[in-house]
Amino acid sequence: MTLETTDTEAPRRARGRPRKTEGERDDGNRRRELIEGAARLFRQQGFSATTTRDIAAAAGMQSGSPFYHFESKEALLAAVMLEGMQ
Questions:
Q1: Which domains are delineated in the chain?
Q2: Separation of alpha carbons 43 and 31, rounded Å
Q3: What is the pLDDT of residues 26-39, one digit of tens each?
Q4: Is CB count within 10 Å lower at the N or C end of the chain?
Q5: 70: Cα within 13 Å, side-chain hemisphere
């Protein structure tokens, strides 16, 4: 017994998320958005009063996303300070 396919069959949809195109890959841009958002919030609210959730929201990310780019809020502060010195 053989299985025949026809040209009218719809192609199967790939599982998972579609691959990002070159223009959609934005790790560097997202990191920059986090640094800029954190700098603004640290100035406005102070370091202690600013949460990583606040920073993620300012960058348009989910609350855990800053930890993909930075080990901690303190590491993000260090990046903000380094950017300020350049």
A1: 27-85 (1.10.10.60)
A2: 18
A3: 666 899 999 999 99
A4: N
A5: 22
